[in-house]
Write a structure and sequence with these properties.
By secondary structure, this protein is of the alpha/beta class. The protein is built from 21 helices and 18 strands.
């Protein structure tokens, strides 16, 4: 077994780990989770012997073969398939010995080496390497391309393929899904479920962790807490524990009203589509586990657009692609205000090409793309992280994006995205990948676009930020187009899917489970088809009926929160004994009366909020609560 005993690891004056201990048994599949900066990658480096602890012991069985996914390597001209085969070190060693024996014309040694080659499945190795590469999204033409010809994200995929090629006793994977699309993520999940060795994986993808791991190690405050079970069960346990703590409970009270109003807002949709049912389950789960994220540093929000055209975009017989290469054709779709669309499709099917055309970065080959007058787009893609001014700070970058805003507003706004104190004034070149992604999203969010187009926004984001992003997208009132391998985010934020496949774009009537089943060969429930046009019309009409009530609920919720803060400040002031000596009798009476009025206003606002929420609930779900129960 693998053990860490009383590990202390210091970073300058800070102790990254303090008496950290954990045990991983042979054959276990363990997810390593924790916020960015908690020490997950450092823990891997300790396992690999790349770091030495300041105190304590870490041991990996001497006979174990260890494989890990490198994050960065020097570019090489090795063909992709050869680069992956290099991951099978024992096989490469035998191949070198065979060449040496052939030069020496040593038939006895050659016979022995060829037997060893066969024992290592050498004759099937190239086919296995090709299978792994295909699973991760590479084409037949890619196999012979040099490693140096691929971009950064594809090089990471090659590093992952190389790690999978190694017949390891211990496999260490650090954020393996970061540069994968959904189809490749589903393939990897299936591959790891067949892996027979010990697996230790760093990931911030809930669904992926649940699909691959059996146990969780949570790094926080320099310690490691080990939990038996899937990540969702761990989150449930942490939520239950934190709900029992008074401090966490008090921090969470403001969120309770938000959850109640938000989940009811979408409850009626459960009768309209299977993906809406999946989303409703995801929303109910979010409310259940919210206390586990009560101490999250993120409280992000996407500012809703002031005006939106209807439709925002109209695609008429649209064809997209590049000169001499048509990728998609015959597209006829409209994007309406409030639409929540997930874009599905295999790697290379044309998802990113479609998004580029919608944003205006790529002109249509044929047809029309009609934009409404109020249909500005907020577009997020990974390459935009590199366009941030390396010398500017997040504060300066935001000030340049919103020049009319005061500095204090900029600081407060950045704080909701996790850029507080010194981090807000640090040059962008010093930010991590996750911090750059948060900043890029924050810059988009502050503009209040009518359309959000997000292409894999969760890469590099930790679990708390993914949770905050899901909340922010749920409250956003514009239209959303989302490409993501994070199934949890898709389930929580989209109501319908577009499928990009075979050169066409069509509505997809199933949910994520049925889509995954078609990609993995797992059995799927029979899919009930819907009249999508009638469904969209009904949804739009329902949304218009909901709009004034939702606005009232939101305004009253804000009023309740504001009055709560005022009353809290007033009561804190009255709790100070010195105030009674410093105040004149008349002034004290006035202060007490003001506190009483605040309390009455808060009570009235809460009553109004409850009434409005009940009216909204009746509109969303006119059936009695017990209807249909036996």
């Amino acid at each position: 077994m693998l053990q860490a005993v009383d590990i202390t690891l210091e970073r300058g004056d800070q102790a990254l780990f303090a008496d950290l201990s954990c045990t991983i048994h042979a054959g276990q599949k363990v997810g390593l989770v924790g916020r960015n900066g908690a020490g997950k990658s450092s823990f891997f480096q300790l396992m690999l012997g790349q770091l030495s602890p300041d105190n304590g012991d870490i041991s990996v069985p001497s006979g174990w073969q260890v494989s890990h996914m490198a994050q960065q390597v020097e570019a090489t001209n090795r063909a992709a398939v050869e680069y992956v085969l290099d991951g099978h070190r024992a096989l490469r060693k035998v191949e070198a010995q065979i060449r040496e024996a052939e030069q020496e014309n040593d038939p006895m040694r050659l016979a022995t080496l060829h037997a060893a080659f066969a024992d290592l499945d050498g004759y099937e190795a190239r086919a296995k390497a090709a299978e792994i590469l295909h699973g991760l999204g590479f084409t037949d033409e890619d196999l012979e391309k040099p490693f140096s010809a691929f971009s950064g994200g594809w090089r990471i995929r090659l590093n992952l393929a190389r790690a999978l090629m190694c017949p390891a006793d211990l496999l260490l994977l650090d954020e393996p899904t970061n540069h994968l699309d959904l189809d490749a993520t589903l393939w990897l999940e299936g591959w790891l479920n067949q892996f027979q060795g010990t697996l230790l994986i760093i990931s911030h993808d809930r669904e992926f962790l649940d699909g691959v791991t059996d146990d969780i190690i949570h790094l926080h405050l320099g310690h490691a807490d080990t939990y038996r079970g899937k990540y969702s069960a761990v989150e449930d346990a942490r939520a239950a524990a934190m709900s029992q703590q008074q401090a966490a409970f008090q921090r969470h009270q403001a969120e309770v009203r938000h959850w109640a109003s938000f989940i009811e807002r979408f409850r009626a949709k459960a009768s309209k589509a299977r993906q809406a049912q999946s989303r409703l389950k995801a929303l109910d789960r979010m409310r259940a586990v919210a206390p586990a994220h009560a101490d999250s540093p993120y409280h992000a929000a996407f500012i809703s657009p002031r005006k939106m055209s209807n439709p925002l975009l109209s695609l008429r017989d649209l064809a997209v692609g590049y000169p001499g290469h048509r990728v998609l054709s015959g597209i006829n779709q409209s994007l309406l205000p409030g639409a929540r669309i997930g874009v599905l499709g295999a790697n290379g099917a044309g998802k990113t090409t479609l998004l580029k055309c919608l944003t205006g970065a790529l002109p249509p080959l044929e047809g029309e793309l009609v934009r409404g007058e109020h249909s500005d787009i907020g577009y997020f893609a990974q390459h935009q992280l590199e366009t941030l001014n390396a010398d500017a700070s997040p504060l300066q970058t935001l000030a340049d994006t919103a020049p009319e805003s005061r500095e204090q507003w900029c600081r407060d706004y950045l704080g909701t995205w996790g850029f507080s104190g010194e981090l807000a004034t640090r040059p962008c070149r010093a930010l991590s990948g996750g911090e750059k992604a948060r900043l890029a999203l924050a810059l988009i969010a502050c503009r209040g676009p009518g359309i959000l187009i997000l292409d894999e926004p969760t890469n590099h984001l930790d679990l708390d930020m993914r949770e905050a992003l899901a909340l922010a997208l749920q409250d956003y009132e514009g239209a959303l187009l989302l490409v993501s391998h994070d199934r949890s985010l898709l389930k929580r934020t989209v109501d319908e899917f577009w499928l990009v496949e075979g050169g066409h774009l069509t509505p997809y009537d199933g949910d994520l489970e049925s889509y995954a089943a078609t990609r993995t060969g797992a059995p799927s429930r029979k899919n009930t088809r819907h009249d999508r046009r009638a469904e969209r019309r009904a949804t739009a009409e329902q949304r218009e009926r909901e709009r004034p009530l939702r606005a009232r609920v939101k305004a009253l919720e804000a009023e309740v929160n504001s009055l709560s803060e005022e009353l809290k400040a007033a009561e804190a002031r009255l709790a100070d004994p010195e105030i009674y000596q410093a105040m004149a009798p008349g002034e004290l009476d006035q202060t007490l009366a003001s506190s009483g009025k605040l309390r009455k206003r808060l009570h009235d606002a809460e009553e109004s909020w409850i009434q409005a929420a009940e009216e909204l609930e009746t509109l969303l779900d006119p059936q009695p609560a017990d209807a249909g129960r036996s």
